[in-house]
Amino acid sequence: MNLKSLTLEELTQLLKDRNQPAFRAKQVFTWLHKGVRTYEEMTNLPKDLREALAEEYPICPPEAVRRQESRRDGTIKYLWRLSDGNCVETVLMRYRYGNTVCISTEVGCRMGCAFCASTLGGLVRRLEPFEMLDQVLFTQVDSGFPVSHIVLMGIGEPLDNFDNVMRFLELVNSPAGMNISMRHISLSTCGLVPKIHELAERKLQLTLSISLHAPNDAVRDRIMPVNRAYPMEALLSACRRYYQATGRRISFEYAMIRDVNDSQADAKELLRRLKGLPAHFNLIPLNHVEESPLKPSTRAAVAAFQKTLEEGGVPATVRRTLGGDIDASCGQLRRKYQEGN
Ligand code: SAH
After folding, report:
1. DSSP-assigned beta bridge partners for residue 98
2. For atom 22 of ligand 1, which residue has the closest CA?
């Protein structure tokens, strides 16, 4: 058990059972959420308590085994080694509105999307709440850039690790911790429909981001196996429900793949199917993954697609690709490291 996976209330109870007053829990919680690497650093705690906690609940901070900084845009990519030797990626992006950390939620992924490097070796294991929190904390500590926004868009499928992700959100949102507002957090999913319904019930103010990548079931079945379990109509109706429950506009990710999902007919079909659902599209030219035959759309095709969506009343932006020079996308760094490159 790692203390950093506990809420302040749970930590208070745990320390109370050791005859410690409530203010001690607050102190420990605050230190842990500052990203200390040892209990030694908790200078306002009695020495014997520090030693006892270090013995029983080691902090186990991740170790940065790679750190790559883009010369073009300041994006920093970390490869962290977790205490069991597994590695995950985290990316820090510097936007005008704030520094954004993109975290991983699992080691590997079992969703099998045809264009994605994260899923090539399958799912190894799910991350614990503190391992997601650590990515934010230690990226902030190492880079020196205060983090204001988080996107759950790294390796893994967040809704396939539902309970741990919900707890992570509670932790990172905690006023005694990082205090990051839900409105500054985006959660991206490939479309696990029952979990979207469950998320809607929690009525969190986060942005739900759907990796849509196709205008219909024929195309989506081909590139995203999850669609065979939860077809598009079920997915879009879960999105409508999410909007009704939270009032939050849905954000759709759409990786533009040459001759697969990027025609004018595709854009028009999307407009028909999304009618009445407040949405925003993020068009992302496909990042080429060595193991895959799929190719990015041409610039002209991306621009034409965007224009058609916009003219149909759906706001669409073309995602600026950051960190292209440092493999800052889609599980590529972890794979290279595993292969020993
Ligand atoms: N499993 C979640 C979280 C991963 S987010 C999800 O599917 O949404 C990572 C985003 O990058 C997803 O939208 C994913 O579909 C997209 N992606 C994966 N590989 C990509 C590639 N080669 N090019 C562009 N986008 C890609």
Report:
1. 95
2. 287
